[in-house]
Each structure stands twice: as structure tokens, then as C-alpha cells.
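thought: fold this chain, then report.
action: predict
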Amino acid sequence: MRTLVLTAFLAVMVSATGALAQSGCGGNFSSFVDGLRAEAVQRGVPRSTVDTFFRNVRQDEAVIRADRRQGIFQRPFLEFSRALISQNRMDSGRRNLDRYRSLFDVARQHYGVSPGILLAFWAFETDFGAVQGDFNTVNALVTLAHDCRRPELFRPQVFAALELHARGALDPASQRGAWAGEIGMVQKLPSDILNYGVDADGSGSVDLARSVPDAILSAANMLRAKGWRAGEPWMHEVVIPQGLDLTRTGLRTELSVSDWQRMGVSARHGSLPSGNMRASVILPQGHRGPAFMVFHNFRTLFEWNQSFIYITTVAYFATRLEGAPVYAAGNPEPGLNQDQMRDLQRRLQGRGFNVGGVDGILGANTRAAVQDVQAQLGLPADGWPTPELLRRL
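observation:
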């Protein structure tokens, strides 16, 4: 196996955050592309390579619409997880584990990453490679770099894609992928491919679109580099007792497993890990819904995707693929619709809370703010916003 290493050339281009910030975003699209061209040449990329890379680039309005339309992340955990975890995906996951067992053994032995996690991402990102996206990758990245919502994320990815092109690993005219510029079966951005790509099949190049070994071991390599610890758990379903101090739930609080057990938290099935291991208890749909104890490895998954609901579902699906039973759904209180959530976020902002933006999504910042204001109002402080909380505010 050979791992692609980020070159000094790319490191200079991507790490120069001050220069990138000065380049700005928005304005005339052609002028913006001219600026990218000039910056690439200034940093030492041959003009012929730059010309080929940017020759046919165009703004893709469908990319912007997709970026603004991420409504699935507004669903509550039970609805979201049931939508993503189908019986077909369960069956396909088990078949792929059997088919590529030796590959997943390498992922576990060499990188320390459990098969369930890799299968879960592979399933959710592309249905095991079947749906990899049909957006032109260069158009998507340049469009999102020009857009002023997240230029600090996507502008460096343009130059990472340029480096892939310079290496002969990306054809700007034909490379297709997701609307956000991710490529291949496990949907990685160009800088991830440069940093963590593994030529697992010995072909001489990293091909995340067609090579299952390259895709799986590249994903494992990235997770290990982001802090995944071999042999440690990531999630275990638990039962919480009546009367638990709910202000201690959520990702902001870490206690030892023993501490949680002394407070009455117990495993719903099997047994919890070592009593000295640090853990949080999360209630993705409040104290009347499922409860999970999560560990360090769960937190590393946010390096892949920052959506709380997505990562919680990935982690849970991984436990299912490795033999855990279906969660106890409970009977959660009704939540808020998108307009109500935005109203809630505005009201929380008005009280001085940082909710991370008024987007209608119950992310980590909004959950923390909800939990704090619930405690102030004498409501169950479980981080799950309800119509009653909105009424009280």
C-alpha cells in the first residue's frame, strides 16, 4: 500500500489563509476565476496546467441550490435514522462485510478502525458506490469558492483539485462527484485524497471512484489520522434512570463510565466498557427517546461530517452492523418544524446564546443553548426543543 502525501507545493497554497482571505469571494465570476488562475501561476503552477484546469470552468447554479436545500438534516433522529437505515442497507452491509472481509481485517489491524464504521459511511455516502454524484467536480468547487457562504472551506479545495490534476489524477472535464466537490465511494474532498489517499490495490494511483480497497483504506487512514483509537468503542445504547440530572447529558459533559453507572445509567444490552473510560450521554430526541453513551471515537467522526444528526446515525448504524439490536425508540415529545426552529434560534440569539446561525437545524450549538435555557426555565434540560419551550420563550 502507498499513501499519497501532501506536497510542499500544496501545503504552501492551502495553508496561506491570510492570502486566501484577501482574495475574497463573490463578484463577477469570470474575474474571480481569473484571480484563481493568477494565484496558481504566482505559486508556481505551470501556466499550461492552470489553463487546462480552468479552461471550461463555469458557475453551476444547481450546486448553490443543493447547498441551500439540505432539509434532510432538519429531521429528528428517529425519522432521520429510519430513513437512512433500510433493510436493504443492512443486508448490503453484511454482504459487503463478507465479500471484503480480508480488506476490513486490514483496516482494523493496520488502522484500528472497526468495519461497522467504514460500512456505515460507505452506505450513507454512496449506497456502497452506486450513487457517487453527477456534478462536475471543478465546477462545483469553484462555484462554492466563489459563493460567500463557506469560501474558507472550498477555495483551498480548488487548489487541491488543481494538484490532483497536475499529478494526472483528476480530469477537470470529466471528473464527476457530489455537489459539494466530494469524490468517490466514500465522498472525499480533494485535500483528503491528497492527505490520506491509499493506493491499496497497488495500481499506482488512488482511485476512490472505482477501487473498493482504495476507498475503504483511505477512509480508515483518514479516521486514524483524525484521532480514532484502535480497540476502543464509539457508542453504546443505554437506559437512563428517572431523576437523572439532565444538565449533565450532551457532548459538553464527559464523565467516567463508573460515574455514569453510579448515577444509574446502565447498558440496554450487553455491558458497558471499562469504568475509567471517559464518556458522554446523548439524548438525540430528548429524555423520552433513545439514549446513547458515546466515547472519544464518536467525537472523531465529526471530522468527517459536522452534522450531529448524521454522525449519530452513522455511529448507531455501525453498532447495528456489528450486532447491536434496534434502539428503544421510546415516546419522545413532539419537536419543532423548520419555521419554529428558526424562530427558536432567533429567540435564543436574542437572549445572548450562540446557536451557530439561524438555519432551522438542531445542531450542537443550538442543542447546548436549548439545554441551558431549559434549565433556566425549570424544564427538563435534555437539549430537545419542544413547542412548550418555544411558548415559554
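thought: worth noting. Residues 240 and 265 are 5 Å apart (CA to CA).
final: C-alpha cells above.
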